[in-house]
Amino acid sequence: MADALDVDAMLKRFRDRAAAVKERPLPPVAGPQRQAFVAQAETDFMDFAIVGDATWDFTDGVLTLRIDLSS
User: Fold this and answer.
1) Is 58 contained in some domain?
2) How far apart are CA 16 and CA 33, in angstroms?
3) How many of the other CB atoms lie within 10 Å of CB of 47?
4) Backbone φ, ψ for residue 11 (5° rounding)
5) Strands (DSSP E) found in 1-71
6) Which of 45, 46, 48, 62 is the most buried (most CB within 10 A)?
7) What does the pLDDT look like over 3-58, one tens digit per residue?
């Protein structure tokens, strides 16, 4: 498993997903459905961006993602 795992590529995919969420067009809905879509997009962006900014270490078969939440 570890040999097949490219962590840098995985983190890039998360950064790419965060960018894609920012570019995601709003569907032609209004009212509460639109608000729900926007709220989900904000959550998706935050999740993908947080993981995409992680640094990592792989020791003794354990992948550790380090995420700095201080800023």
Assistant:
1) yes
2) 26
3) 14
4) -65, -35
5) 55-59, 62-66
6) 48
7) 688 999 999 999 999 999 999 888 888 899 989 999 999 999 999 999 999 999 99
